[in-house]
């Protein structure tokens, strides 16, 4: 499971632009280096920022309101697939907005490995970009 330290989650990243900058320039190089390495030009970095912005928007749309939850949600998008929250076992969790978001994030990580594999197999990476995504 992804572990975020309190010093990583300061107020400076509650604003969207600051969150995106932190996720792309600090978090990804240390926690997702293989994915980060794929974006090796200025043009690709701009696309990556749009992808992270879209991921954060999806997190907010599904009732995740803190930078910690946004980080987990987006990281799950990298590990499982851009629209992992549409797979049946994940969708029920994503839509359970009446439950605390920390419990829902934990529940994502508790989904059986088989369902993670199925969601990965059915992933459509075009859904990283907002014009392709289905809410």
| Mean of all residue-level pLDDT scores | 88
Helix content: 55-70%
The tally of strands reads: 0
Please state the overall shape, judged from the principal axes of the Cα atoms.
Answer: globular
Which structural class do the helices and strands define? mainly alpha
Order of helices and strands: HHHHHHH
Largest sheet: none
Radius of gyration: 14 Å
Strand content: under 5%
Distance between the termini: 26 Å
Write the SSE topology.
Layout: H1 16-31, H2 33-37, H3 42-61, H4 67-79, H5 88-95, H6 101-110, H7 113-121
How would you describe this structure in keywords?
mainly alpha
Description:
This protein has one domain (15-128). It has seven helices and no strands. The chain has helices spanning 16-31, 33-37, 42-61, 67-79, 88-95, 101-110, 113-121. The mean pLDDT is 88. 60% of the residues lie in helices and 0% in strands. It has 135 residues and is mainly α. Helix 1 (16-31) packs across helix 3, helix 3 (42-61) crosses helix 4 and helix 4 runs parallel beside helix 6.
Summarize this structure briefly.
The protein is mostly helical and 135 residues long. It has helices spanning 16-31, 33-37, 42-61, 67-79, 88-95, 101-110, 113-121.
